[in-house]
Design goal:
The complex is a heterodimer of chains A (271) and B (315). With 271 residues, chain A is an all-alpha fold. In chain A, 71% of the residues lie in helices and 0% in strands. The two termini of chain B are 12 Å apart. The chains are: A mainly alpha (271), B mainly alpha (315).
Chain lengths: 271, 315
């Protein structure tokens, strides 16, 4: 096991653990207002200090981790659930009109950065965490479709696939039974990277007001709230920022570590 | 090359056409009639009808789509529902902030990433390489808008070298304008520089393993001469592709950074338009951003094919 893998899994587990524990316990109620204790810097009672309403920042960070993880995880799920079958289909029908349509469609979706998709959705349906999930999820689809197709194409040339065809298996069955298990490692690694990009994107979207809305706690919104107070209460901006960095860094290291551990030959696209 | 160019041009036009239909269709799903939104619930039916006619809303959806597209082709983006001014004028004003910001950030990120990537590759596995790689790992993990807030805290609030926000405008001189875009450009450039430095390093490492590099050393060039004359130049090809792709992300990314610095760019315009339900502005800005992404990718593909003839046979 590499250093990357150990450090990456340690940091990622820490964040996931904080999110899980927040369901049963937080030091304080994350939504409880306590104006007399407002804007305290980190201290023994409030490890991460308090915000302008006197809410405990540590509890807010713990609960905020839930939003970040949920949004990024579901977005990766959407990307995989739609992108992988598309990629498998395109590879199985290589060179056909179906392959062409799928890949051109992917190029088109790629031209819409997740922020732009979020702007479009919000303009029509209003802001919310669901929009962030959809926007990031749509952006993930071509990422998974491309990487699946690329890996599947080289597998289709292999002899064991030829053997499966000789045995009378159809393209769909070969894709599911032989191609998919062989691209799984690659998908796990890319999934980790997209997860970390999703955390960053969610923070950005909720920062500009296109993501999770009050009262759902979110790291990006905490940063937006902190903006006007950063001069006299820097901890309001520092702490949510560090939470994002630790999470993204952890996931990236985990992704790199997993890649080296599962298969040193595979290369991951980092858009 | 001509055949390849025409083929890519056709695919560019198809992409743009499909993208415009998608954007128009999504915005059309939006509930509510802009005219009644503007005039309020007590508006008279004939006033509403007159306003709809003025805004070009009294025709069928297909007709409106073609009006929108044909207008855009000649630079007419329609009239803003809230400000009653031409959308093209509003966008042009804001582009004078967003576009220079994106270009400034692109320049900075290239200036940081090239030396860092070349340095790391030349010292592969040594402490210098590990330091650069560690820094880029961190750079990728830092959200640019948070980094922007930290820059404001340090360089504007504490050191007072820059203003915390706002844009001085180009009318007060080029350097004044550039000065107020400096912190936003740095914030925008950092994560991109981290990615670019990693691409530069791995591309250069691939080249350094090539036979012609050994030949260059064998004919008597020093390590440094071989690196600069043959290594860096060949490594630049994939790096340029990434730079092209980054430009469109910088343009979109500037939308978030503008919020931190209260810059009057495309981002502010689009967010104001969303809250005012000025959908024609949203529609046009989104189309413009998507147009920029698709066109830049097209140009990168062409430049790439011009440099590397092997790519022309691929689609």
């Amino acid at each position: 096991m590499s250093r990357n893998l150990i450090l990456g899994s340690a940091l990622s587990s820490l964040v996931v653990l904080a999110a899980l524990v927040s369901f049963v316990w937080t030091p304080y109620d994350h939504a409880a207002l306590n104006i007399p204790d407002k804007l305290q810097p980190p201290n023994a009672q409030h490890w991460f200090g308090t915000d302008h309403f006197g809410r405990d920042m540590f509890s807010m960070i713990m609960v905020g981790a839930r939003t970040s993880i949920a949004v990024a995880l579901v977005a990766v799920g959407i990307g995989m659930a739609l992108g992988v079958p598309l990629g498998l289909t395109a590879a199985a029908r290589k060179g056909s009109w179906l392959d062409e349509v799928i890949m051109r469609g992917n190029d088109l979706v790629f031209a819409f950065p997740s922020l732009v998709i979020a702007i479009l959705i919000t303009a029509v349906f209003g802001a919310g965490a669901i929009n962030a999930i959809i926007a990031i999820g749509i952006f993930n689809i071509p990422v998974f479709a491309r990487i699946t197709r690329g890996a599947a194409l080289s597998l289709w040339e292999r002899e064991f696939i030829l053997a499966a065809r000789v045995a009378g298996k159809g393209a769909a069955r070969i894709s599911a039974e032989h191609i998919l298990p062989n691209v799984a490692n690659l998908l796990i690694v890319q999934g980790t990277i997209q997860f970390s990009l999703g955390i960053l994107a969610e923070a950005g979207l909720s920062y500009v007001g296109l993501g999770a809305q009050s009262p759902t706690p979110s790291w990006g919104r905490m940063l937006a709230d902190a903006q006007t107070m950063v001069s006299f209460a820097p901890h309001l901006a520092l702490i949510p920022g560090l939470a994002i960095i630790v999470t993204v860094l952890g996931l990236n290291l985990l992704g790199d570590g997993l890649r080296d551990w599962l298969d040193p030959r595979i290369r991951v696209a980092r858009a | 090359m001509l055949r390849y160019t025409l083929k890519r041009l056709l695919s560019l036009l198809v992409s743009l056409a499909v993208a415009s239909v998608v954007i128009f269709a999504v915005i059309e799903v939006a509930p509510g009639d802009p005219a009644s939104f503007m005039l309020g619930v007590n508006a008279q039916e004939d006033t509403l009808a007159a306003l709809r006619a003025e805004l070009g809303l009294d025709v069928s959806k297909t007709q409106r789509y073609f009006n929108w597209i044909s207008g855009m082709l000649v630079g007419d983006f329609g009239t803003s529902y809230t400000y009653r001014t031409p959308v093209s004028q509003m966008i042009a004003d804001r582009l004078w902030v967003s576009l220079p910001l994106a270009l400034y950030a692109l320049t900075l990120s290239t200036l940081i990433a090239f030396p860092a990537g070349i340095y790391a590759a030349a010292r592969r596995g040594k402490p210098g390489d590990l330091t650069v790689m560690g820094a880029t790992q961190l750079g990728i993990a830092v959200p640019n808008f948070w980094f922007a807030m930290m820059l404001v805290l340090i360089f504007a609030i504490n050191l007072r070298w820059f203003n915390a926000g706002g844009f001085a405008g180009w009318d007060n001189g080029f350097w004044t304008g550039l000065h107020s875009l400096t912190l936003p450009a740095i914030a925008l450039a950092l994560p991109q520089a981290a990615i670019l430095a990693r691409v530069m390093r791995s591309s250069l490492l691939d080249i350094l393993a090539e036979d012609f590099m050994r030949t260059a050393r064998a004919k008597g060039l020093t390590r440094r001469q071989a690196l600069w004359r043959h290594g860096v130049r060949n490594a630049l090809i994939p790096v340029l592709t990434i730079i092209g792709l980054q430009f469109s992300f910088l343009l979109a990314g500037s939308i978030i950074i503008e919020q931190v610095f209260y810059l009057p760019g495309l981002g502010r315009l689009v967010f104001q338009a969303i809250s005012a339900r000025d959908l024609i502005v949203v529609e046009s800005v989104v189309m413009l951003l998507v147009f920029a992404v698709i066109t830049v990718n097209f140009l990168v593909d062409l430049a790439y094919a011009a440099v590397d003839p092997r790519l022309r046979s691929r689609t």
